[in-house]
Amino acid sequence: MRFIIHGAGAVGSLVGGNLAESGESVVLIGRPDHVAAINDRGLLIKSARGDRLIKNLVAVEHPSEVAPQDGDIIFLTIKSAQTEQAVHDLRERFSEETPVFCLQNGVRNEEFAARRFLRIYGAMAALSATFLTPGTIAHTMNNTISLGNYPLNCDELCREVADKLNRAGFKTTTPESIMAVKWSKLILNLNNATYAIIDNFLQMGLVTPAISRFMADVEEEGLHVLDVSGIGVSDPDNPINFEKRLAELRSVAEDPEKIEKAAELPYELRTYPSTWMDLKLKRGETESSYFNGEIILLGEKHHINTPYNSTLLQIVESMAAEKAEPGRYTLDELIHQIEQRRMKLYNGEGLS
Known about the structure:
Blueprint: E1 2-6, H1 10-21, E2 25-29, H2 32-41, E3 43-47, E4 50-54, E5 58-60, E6 72-76, H3 83-93, E7 100-103, H4 109-114, E8 120-133, E9 136-149, H5 156-167, E10 171-173, H6 178-189, H7 192-198, H8 202-205, H9 209-229, H10 242-250, H11 256-263, H12 274-280, H13 288-301, H14 307-321, H15 331-346
Parallel strand pairs: 1-2, 1-6, 2-5, 3-9, 6-7, 7-8, 9-10
Antiparallel strand pairs: 3-4, 8-9
Helix pairs in contact: 7-12, 7-14, 9-10, 9-13, 13-14, 14-15
């Protein structure tokens, strides 16, 4: 078995690096500067437990540089907007029978991949990693990966890959419905825009009462839309328990010591969501339409107002188009923007 990691940014490099360190054969496909750094000196993974330099990796810039072989497994870790082009490029090189695991945020990637390949698997990474510099990433939080056939069950190959990820240091689950688990991750990703707009990071948000309550409100709006739409997020192997999570977010108490500890975290150990990084690097686009946009569309379909998600998407997409850096609004200013939208909805000036 050989793992082809297409989209080796932070998460893809972490998964590929851990697999390689555990003895698996791994090829990373990534950006030119990252590829050059890895081939020159190896992949450096930073974490609170220390630094690891992994050298037994092959890195290339495009699928055309990979010679297919029996036992290849493709992991997609690219952004959702790039999936259609990526599977087109991969299909020109690899057989349609090659297994493809969509280790991506959002819920549309498996559908795109299934148009080109026959053996599609969903995968959800309940972990956080940050791209620091070419050749260097940080593993900042959590360590769980869920796998499953698309859309249901888990076959022998799925269990074999899960076992290899376990041996690479990840905690893996194999839920009956991987898409229920991926919808759960989408709910968590709704606040990626929040952190980009207010210029903050997850560890600080989780100990700041105002931010954690706001996160709960955003997620609750998304969960309500999914519930009315008949989209379930429950599975016995789902690592996310929303009843518990929302209660914990709303019960965060003011604790100066915890806030000070979070503030002292070095940059490389802070968890900045990918949307924050997209704005910071002025990439001109984000994945927010695949997160908040899903909730807005379902809300419109079922006549449910979505002031939180609509406001977040409108602001962050505007910031991306203008190449604005994170921090356009404070949390109070963001809440004011949402209240203005809520009043417009109340006065019948549109659903979203």
